[in-house]
Sequence to fold (297 residues):
Amino acid sequence: MNPRILEPFLQRLTMLSKSLIEQTCSDLEKQYVDYLISHFGQWRVWAEASQRVADRQSVSEQEIPEAFRTEFKIMQVIVEMQDLGKFDWKNPTLMKLFGELSQGPFYKFFGDTITKIALRLAQKAGVKTLLEIGAGRANLTKIMLDQMAAMNISLPLVTTDSQPVILDNIVTLKADYPRADMAALLWNITDPPPEELIQNVRHPVLVYERYTLNYANVSAIKNIARVADILVLGDWFNCTGELFAYDEVFKKIGAMPFFFKDIKPLLDEHFPNQHIFDQRAIDAIKLPNITLLIAWK
Ligand SMILES: C[S@@+](CC[C@H](N)C(=O)[O-])C[C@H]1O[C@@H](n2cnc3c(N)ncnc32)[C@H](O)[C@@H]1O
Fold:
C-alpha cells in the first residue's frame, strides 16, 4: 500500500497523548474520580461482609454501604441458588435486581463518562467510526446516541455482541434515533472480527465498551486490535492481585475477575499507549480495580 494513504491517519493518531487526554477530559476526570472516591470509599467494608455472605453467616443490609446494596442482594440470591444446586437466570428476584443495578445512579453516570470520553477523544483523533462491543440490550448504546445528539456529533456507529439480541435492538434504536448512522453485527470477541465488520469500518476506529471483557477473556484484545485504533474500556481490572468473596461468587454469573497484570502484556503488544483514567481513585481509596482505561496504537 502506498504509505501516503496512511499518512493522515497516522498523524492524527499520534496526536493522542496522555497530556492531551488529561487536558481534554479534566472536568470528566474530576467528576468521575470524585464520585468513585465518595461512592466506593467503603469498598472494603463490603468486601469483608461479602466473605460472611459466602460463609452463609447472617449479614444485615444496614451493615452494607449503600453503594453496594444491590450487589449484596444479588450475591445473596446467587448463594441461595448455589445451595439449591441450580442456577436460574430467569429467577424473578434476580432479574429485578439486575434491572435495579442497571437503573442505579452509578450505571448511568459510568455510561455518561465512558461515552463523553469516547466522543471527545474521537474528535481530537479524527475518528471515522465508533464501534461498541458487547452492546447487549443497548443501554450504553442509547447513552452514546444521546451524547452524540447533545454534542452535535454525527459519527457512524457499529454495535456488536455475541448474542442476536443486538440485531433486534437495532430495529428499535433506528426508529428512536432516525438520524443516526448505525449498523449492528454479531461478533464474539473471542474470535477474530468478521470480514463484514472489517469492511464496514473506516479508520481511525474507536472502540468503547462496558462490562464485556470480563465475560469474554483477555486475549480478546488481540482480536479487537484487528479492527480498533483507540480503546475506551469500562471493564474492571484487578490491579492489586487481591480477590474477595464477591469476585468468587460473581464468577457464577459469568463475570470473571481479570488481573491487570494479565491484560497488560496484550495491551503493550497491541495498544502500547495507555492511560489509567481513575488512577487518582486507586491511589486515594486503594480501590482494587481499574474501572476506566484508555489505550491507543
Ligand atoms: C453485562 S452485559 C453489558 C452490556 C452493555 N455493554 C452495557 O454496558 O449495558 C455483557 C454483554 O457482553 C456480551 N458478551 C459476553 N461475552 C461476549 C463475547 N465473547 N463477545 C461479545 N460479547 C459478549 C453479552 O452478550 C452481554 O450483552
Remarks:
- The first strand starts at residue 129 and ends at 132.
- Strands lie at 129-132, 157-161, 182-186, 205-210, 230-234, 237-238, 258-259, 273-276, 289-290, 293-296.
- The CA atoms of residues 71 and 188 lie 27 Å apart.
- The pocket of S-adenosylmethionine is lined by residues 133-136, 139-140, 161-163, 188-190, 209-212, 215-216 (CB under 6 Å).
